Amino acid sequence: KSGSGRKSFWLDATIHAREWIATATILKITDQIINDYSTDSIVQSLVDKYDCYIAPMLNPDGYKFSWDSNRYWHKDRRTRNLSASVDLNRNFDVQWMSDGTSSFACMDTYGGKSAASEPETQAVQDEAQRVGRDVLAWVSINSYSILWLAPY
C-alpha cells in the first residue's frame, strides 16, 4: 500500500505524556540513523534497504502539560475537562475497550467515548493503513515497567 515497494519499519514514542525518556530514546535512535549513515555500514545498509517511519511524539499536548503542570499526567489534553481526557494507547480500533482499558473517564486507562475518537489515534491508524503490509516491525517506545509487549 505504501507504493515504494520496499519493506519498512515504524518507530513511535511518547503516546503517554509522562514517559519523557521515551522521547529522548527515539531522538537518540533518530540521531544515530541520520549522523552515522556515512560512517556506519550497518546503519547505511538498513537505511538503503528499508523505509523508516519515525514518529517521535504521539502526544505533544499531554507531554507539554506533564512538564508545565502535572508531572504524572498520562493522557491527552484534547478536552478541557481533565477527567475526560483519553489514554491514546487504548483508543485504537483494534480490541477497543478490551482488558486493561477503563470505561471510566477519570481513570488513566480511559479508552475514550468511542474507538479512534482522538485525532492522534486517527492519524496513526491512517498512516498504518497507508503503509500497510510493507511494515516488518512496528515498535512503540514506552517507559513504564520492564516489559516487551506484542500487539493484538
Could you characterize the architecture of this molecule?
By secondary structure, the protein is α/β, with parallel strands linked by helices. The protein has a single domain (8-141), classed as Zn peptidases (Aminopeptidase, 3-Layer(aba) Sandwich). The chain has helices spanning 20-35, 41-49, 60-68, 119-131; strands at 8-13, 51-55, 135-141. A three-stranded parallel beta sheet has the order 2-1-3, covered by helices on one side. The longest helix is centred in the first third of the chain and has 16 residues, at 20-35. The two termini are 21 Å apart. The model has no long low-confidence stretch (mean pLDDT 90). Residues 1-152 form the Peptidase M14 domain.
